[in-house]
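During the practical work, I selected for study one protein's amino acid sequence and its backbone structure tokens, as given directly below:
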Amino acid sequence: MPRFDVTTYGEGQLRYSVPPGQRLEMADKYDVNISGTEANVTTLLSRLGWNCGWVSSLPNNPMAKRVFNAYMLSGLDLSAVQWKNYGRMATYYVEYAVPPRSTNVFYDRTNTCFTNMCNTDIDWDYILDTKILHLSGLTLPLSENTRIIINEAIDKAKANNITVSFDVNHRTRLWSTETARKHLLPILEKVDLLFCGLRDARTIFDFSGSPQETLQQVKELTSAKHIIMSMSENGLLGWDGEEMIHQPSRQVVVLDRIGAGDAMVGGVLHGYLQGDFVKGLVYGVTTASMNLSQYGDQLITSSAELDEVVNTPSGDIVR
């Protein structure tokens, strides 16, 4: 029996942001949140009762300890984190805006402790002691090292009959669509559970047509037994190997958009781990909406609260 339900490899980050109406270049104070796409997924799953592990590297300084402590509160296992006495912490900056301006994200993730990790630094016994290995395409462009590690992790997982979950998660400010396509195509051929947004499918692979037609085109690129296509306010479109299933989105008042995609992935995996893919789609749209309605990248919830929200969608006052 594997030690973990889900393991992952990814970078922890500090997020500095200013609210709508303020500009980063004039800011004299920032809101601070903790981020990291893979950790956003696994901290949520940990809060929902699953045993999850995170492989990464952090500098031995107070900023990294702030990230570590936030993850620790979720119950995520951090015993495989490598602490370095040199190197730096990843950060990113968010300038929230309202129309006609767009919210802007600026990354500072070059030459960090994480991006300098080599494949020989990975505790392979740890990360492969799992039912599911979850990885993100957002980590691929960070360095040549991260690309080598992700590809090796997938190959080792497949050799050990471990389910590979992969989120395309494209970021145009990290690499071009042409480069992304080149590195993503070989990976999609190997994964078992694929998350690919409708916008990513159209942007990276130049697909067109209805969401159903686009998902059909994605199917031809991958060996995945399950595919989840997020369609923003139109919900999720899932494929279970036999049919397409549409799960409408939940009504929500948006407070903070960042992290909703990771929350959706965590919700889908929550159902998948219970052996119920359709239920996972229901959880996925619910966790995404819950994340949109709170501040910060990480969804703070519990299994009991999630089930309550699924079963009582009104959002009324609980007294």
